[in-house]
User: Fold this.
Amino acid sequence: MPKTTPFREFKHGHTAGSKERIARLKAEMEEEMRLEQLREALDLTQVRLAKLLGTSQANVSRLEKQNDMLLSTLRDYIRALGGELVLSVRIGGGSVRLKGISDLRRAV
Assistant:
């Protein structure tokens, strides 16, 4: 698994323009985004992300177009972006964060 940089560390040492993009990304993260939009907001190409994931650009492209995928695949994608996958369930007026999701292992 490639080493990723936490978002809080990733934002340090960037230009004013990239800091503005990061601020815009954080604001947009309150809304829905497609994986492609999230990657682009972080100024990552599919080629660069593919290298971080240890796969091909074509696989990243397919992944971004999928409507259904393994949680472990999504987790790896998000980690390569420097993030953490967190899942929660809303029922009625309440919500609960699911535990154990970060422990998922990719089935081979």
About this structure: The chain has one domain: 7-103. The longest strand covers residues 88-91. The mean pLDDT is 80. The chain has six helices and two strands.
